[in-house]
Predict the structure of Dehydrogenase.
Amino acid sequence: MRADRYRVGFVGAGGVAARHASVLAGFPDVAIVGVVDPYADAARSLSEKFGATVEESVDDLLALEPDAVYVCVPPFAHGPAEAAVLAAGIPLFVEKPLGLDAELPQQLAARIVAADVVTGVGFHWRYSAAVARARDILDGHRVSLVAGTWLDKVPPVGWWPRRDGSGGQLIEQAVHVVDLARVLVGDVTEVYAVADAAPPDVPDADVDSSAAATLRFASGAVGTLSTTCRLGWKHRAALEIFADGIALAISEEGCEVRTTEGNEWHPVDPMDAKRAVDRAFLNAVGGDREGLRVDYPDALRSHQLACALARSASERRPIDV
Ligand SMILES: NC(=O)c1ccc[n+]([C@@H]2O[C@H](COP(=O)([O-])OP(=O)(O)OC[C@H]3O[C@@H](n4cnc5c(N)ncnc54)[C@H](O)[C@@H]3O)[C@@H](O)[C@H]2O)c1
């Protein structure tokens, strides 16, 4: 067996691709073999750093016969790369969000299920020890109330402030929190979101500045979600969960618990979950799917929920999910 058991290709060589590549380069059994990005500087920089070749197209990348491909493109650019990788039957890691809307990801998910291709998705919060702790504490308790927040700045990438670039904050950012709510509290049956449609104060922006939403869970629990991109800093991205005698707050930094017995704080290193999501995917590529906590078809359900929230805000009406 080769030392580099997993030969990985990248489609998209921006910020998140660089993070995955650094994590993968820290594993003893991974080689990054090729990079595709229409922005030549990004492709060159990532490939030089990790000893990979720059490829002109996804087909050229696939000609290197990688064991897995990471698709780290902006929301508007999903589709062609995934389709080509799936056609080649190669395992696929896709960064969130899966697309600008639900239609294309639904089609891709159907192909993934039919072909039983190994997939991973960048919902790395699922791999956090803070989430595991929350799950343990909530075990056997009925959640009554959920409060999600994503209070942040406009990220410094040109595609973000445009609806046709990012899909907006509910789809692009809050989907992490929406995903956690689904995992810890269960399916959502109805959402109603209202938005401050005034765009943030950056050039060419047309996304909503803020949104406030309510969610009804199948279990009977209810929830809220508050988002804004009008701050100059990342203020808070978290999910609070309330059950009889339990108040939990989960963030990328840890899980804060208050019960009738007292308070606990379980800090975590946010990089641990980011490493774990890549390791679990590669293990699945190698045949061990045990540790894979979220694949594309599962992630699709959280993406559909985020899309329903965005549609509710734009159509100004409650939506049955
Ligand atoms: N899970 C997470 O924590 C996390 C963190 C950051 C970003 N993301 C997600 O990752 C995605 C990319 O974000 P980013 O910060 O890396 O953006 P970025 O703008 O830094 O990088 C995206 C790169 O993709 C390239 N690209 C555009 N169209 C392409 C195409 N058709 N084929 C190949 N490359 C293409 C761009 O030229 C750019 O270099 C976004 O959807 C974002 O939401 C996830």
Observations:
- The mean pLDDT is 97.
- DSSP finds eleven helices and 15 strands in the chain.
